[in-house]
Amino acid sequence: MPESKMETWTDSQGKKIYPVTQQSQSNRIALLINTETFTTSLYKCRAVKDEKVMQNLLQTLGYEVVRCGDITAKMIDKPLKEFSEHPKLALTDSVFVTLVCYGGTGTEEFEIDQIFQHLNTKNCPALKDKPKIIIIHACRGVCVFVSVGEESADLLDRKQFVPTDDIESLSVNSVKGPRAQNEKDFIIFHSSTTYTGSYKHETYGSAFIQHIFEAVRKHCLTDDIEEIFRMVMQSFEEFPSEQMPTKERDTLTKRFYLFQS
């Protein structure tokens, strides 16, 4: 692999990859949020197990874990903003943001867009061109409603389409100087598809977190993160429920290997 970040990094198959160096690995940072929407002590017990599993996994991968617990979904904005200003972001090669949500009445809500707004290129330039891996465990059936923001609900009604003939003139007239894509190098890995619950075990916690732990532990030295997520999805194909983890808002333009030789 090339020694300079200015060069194109590739894997053994010639595919473009995100740069990882010894210095960037030693400055890795991750955010772990546990939202308190519990109605029973059993939910809390499961959430604590999931939180510990993810914390141990991230630390094993070399990430300093910033933990934020005992908050409600509506309080997520503050730790996200504080994390976006962390001094290590300028030195790390990537970040993980993990949200573990349990219980609730179905009315508790957080907006995924908050994560993107705080960590995008405009508001967090330190993470420009770096992988931002978002893992969310939240029942989309009855536990926690995950929203993409009010704007997206009536996007077609409130946004005016630009005729194709005007696109070139619009881009010439509106863009002044070089611009970078504001939302890039993100991926969300969600525990289930929309309107579907997430399976939990009263002793071991959530199946989603357990399957991530096993897949990353076995394949982090050989496979990129999207391939590892695909392995997790495949492990649910014969799972005794309708749960299927899903990748969303994937803008990773290169392969991200947690460890590179």
Q: Which structural class matches the secondary elements?
A: alpha/beta
Number of separate domains: 1
The name of the CATH topology is: Rossmann fold
DSSP summary, beta strand count: 10
Biggest beta-sheet profile: 6 strands, mixed
Side by side, the strands of the main sheet go: 2-1-3-5-7-10
Overall geometry: globular
Please indicate the percent range of residues in DSSP E strands (runs of 2 or more). Answer: 15-25%
Family: Belongs to the peptidase C14A family.
Domain Caspase family p20: 26-141
Domain Caspase family p10: 179-260
GO biological process, one term: regulation of inflammatory response
Task: Explain this structure.
The protein has 261 residues and is an alpha/beta fold. The chain has one domain: Rossmann fold. The chain has nine helices and ten strands. The strands form three sheets. A six-stranded mixed sheet has the order 2-1-3-5-7-10, with helices on both faces. The protein has a two-stranded parallel sheet with strand order 4-6. A hairpin with a 3-residue loop joins strand 8 and strand 9. The longest helix is centred in the first third of the chain and has 20 residues. It is globular, with a radius of gyration of 19 Å. The N terminus is likely disordered. This is Caspase family p20 domain-containing protein. InterPro entries: Caspase-like_dom_sf (IPR029030), Pept_C14 (IPR002398), Pept_C14_caspase (IPR011600), Pept_C14_p10 (IPR002138), Pept_C14_p20 (IPR001309), Pept_C14A (IPR015917). One of its GO terms (biological process) is regulation of inflammatory response. GO terms for molecular function: cysteine-type endopeptidase activity.
